[in-house]
Amino acid sequence: MSEKQTPKLTQKEKMQALIDQKKGGGRSKQTDVAKNDRTKMRKGPKIFNEIHW
To answer: Where are the stretches annotated Disordered (predicted)?
Structure first.
């Protein structure tokens, strides 16, 4: 038998502990420039409705 005694946790407490563990990562601060900036947007094909001869 191991010397350490782990406290009995309910299913809800177990899930909460898991959620708290996973919360840490990610970006710390929001970037100043918007992501959908004109320079970063993908330029699609130019479609013309009229016929060019």
So the answer is: 1-53
Distance CA 2, CA 49 (A): 77
Are 9 and 17 contacting, i.e. CB atoms less than 8 angstroms apart? yes
End-to-end CA, the chain: 87
* Both structure tokens of 12: 């809800």
State pTM to two decimals.
0.30
Q: Tokens 């899930």 appear where? A: 15
CA atoms of 46 and 43, how far apart (whole Å): 9
**10 token code pair:** 């309910």
